[in-house]
UniProtKB/TrEMBL annotation:
Subunit structure, as described in the record: Homodimer.
PROSITE patterns: AA_TRANSFER_CLASS_2 (PS00599)
Organism: Granulicella tundricola (strain ATCC BAA-1859 / DSM 23138 / MP5ACTX9)
Family: Belongs to the class-II pyridoxal-phosphate-dependent aminotransferase family. BioF subfamily.
Name of this protein: 8-amino-7-ketopelargonate synthase
E.C. numbers: 2.3.1.47
NCBIfam families membership: bioF (TIGR00858), PRK06939.1 (NF005394)
């Protein structure tokens, strides 16, 4: 792959016109509206602390298609930041399915699912996912976050207990808090510690829910789903897994961590996403028919959110067809991941395992430690032609800031090699290597 040009000539004239128009609108807004009122001065003060720490950021704008190489803020960069694991965001079959669904069903559903917004295509998608995951039923939510938060908060109450891995996703934490259940946190992937807690509360009334990520989004390590499922069975608990980053990545044809560990029938609640490897938008919950019917009645994000546009549902159906019929995509993903990790380690980067969990998936963190240095590294990488996002506190613990990289099936070997060259050269310039 040749050098990635990053000058203004990469922008089309229409994009330049749009940017100019946007800047003019922003200027007009500043002229016509006063600065932050004193009632919100505490927000300005907090933002100032972010700036002082070097962790303040602005959103980057994607100007073309989400791919291994794309244009952000007018600069053509290799993209190691997206969750588009299998390159399905712009797959022709998904595009065709979306266009046909718009022609057949329009652009919106017009209501929440429980009133008038359940279309036949929504049910087809849920049936498709349930069959794929080898469960009785499935319900689709508007996002993976709402699927987690809505499920945990609705199936438990204040008399119950939640045993949660300390590095579980924020959506799990929020759902646990909303449920008002008693929250017990076990050390990361520490099954013995989880069992200690179960023993301590064995005689307490109420249900016990064990919950873990299938793949942890910041470190890329795999949760001990099989062992935790065995614990849940031993102590009569409910087992739940969030497979957002395992969907389309682990298991046969991307069936997730339950399939990866072969614990079908032993995980009561499986949460997945349609927003990452599937290439579209949304989240889903799989389990028994009674679980799904209950969520229809009590999961607030489901009850009070308009259902997906039919084009999104059709896109997701097409994506699951591709998972079944194109397993080579997942193999390419893992081949690229193995090569990238090997080369990073050879170059001397800390990619986990030293005071942090070791990555086992296409999510590969490059541990820097200090927040400002991490953000400076990320900015320098972008200037050099590489999109690799800096992650700092509070998303990760203080002292464990990192560049989080994500490999996809669609990166070419030339693109991976150029990424490695940019990472190494920039790291040496900044005295990181």
């Amino acid at each position: 792959m040749g050098p990635i040009k990053s000058d203004a000539s990469n922008l089309t004239s229409s994009a330049c016109t749009r940017k100019t128009f946007t800047i003019e609108l922003m200027s007009l807004a500043v002229e016509n509206h006063p600065q932050t009122r004193s009632q919100l001065a505490h927000l300005t003060a907090q933002l100032d602390t972010f700036r002082q720490a070097g962790t303040f950021f602005r959103l980057r704008e994607l100007e073309d298609i989400q791919g291994p190489v794309c244009t952000y803020d007018g600069r053509k960069v290799i993209n190691l930041a997206s969750n588009n694991y299998l390159g399905l965001c712009n797959h022709p079959k998904l595009e065709e399915a979306a266009i046909q669904a718009i022609k057949d069903h329009g652009v919106g559903s017009g209501a929440v699912r429980t009133i008038a917004g359940t279309m036949r295509i929504h049910m087809e998608l849920e049936e498709k996912i349930a069959a794929f995951k080898n469960v009785e039923a499935c319900v689709v939510f508007q996002s993976g976050f709402s699927a987690n938060a809505g499920t945990v908060s609705s199936i438990l109450g204040k008399e119950d207990f939640i045993l949660s891995d300390e590095l579980n996703h924020a959506s799990i934490i929020d759902g646990a808090r909303l449920s008002k259940a008693k929250i017990k946190v076990f050390r990361h992937k520490d099954v013995a510690h989880c069992e200690e807690i179960l023993q301590e509360i064995a005689n307490e009334p109420g249900k016990k829910l064990i919950i873990t990520d299938g793949v942890f989004s910041m470190d890329g390590d795999i949760g001990p789903v099989g062992e935790l499922a065995a614990l849940a069975e031993k102590y009569g608990g409910i087992m739940m897994v969030d497979d957002a980053h395992a969907s389309g990545v682990l298991g046969r044809n991307g069936r997730g961590s339950v399939d990866h560990f072969d614990v079908h029938g032993k995980v009561d609640v499986q949460v997945g996403t349609l927003s990452k490897a599937i290439g579209a938008l949304g989240g889903y919950v799989c389990g028994s028919r009674d679980l799904i019917d209950y969520l229809y009645h009590r999961a607030r994000p489901f009850l009070f959110s308009t259902s997906h546009p039919p084009s999104v549902a059709a896109t997701c159906i097409a994506a699951f067809d591709i998972l079944e019929n194109e397993p080579d995509r997942i193999q390419r993903l893992w081949d690229n991941t193995a090569y990238f990790k090997q080369q990073l380690a050879h170059s001397g980067f800390n990619i986990g395992g030293v005071n942090t969990p070791a990555s086992e998936t296409p999510i590969t963190p490059i541990i820097i430690g200090e927040g400002r240095k991490t953000m400076d590294f990320s900015k320098a990488l972008f200037e050099a032609g590489l999109m690799a996002t800096g992650i700092a506190f509070p998303t990760v613990q203080e002292g464990k800031a990192r560049i989080r990289t994500i490999m996809t099936s669609e990166h070419t070997r030339a693109q991976i090699d150029q990424s490695l060259e940019i990472l190494t050269t920039t790291a040496k310039t900044l005295s990181i290597l």
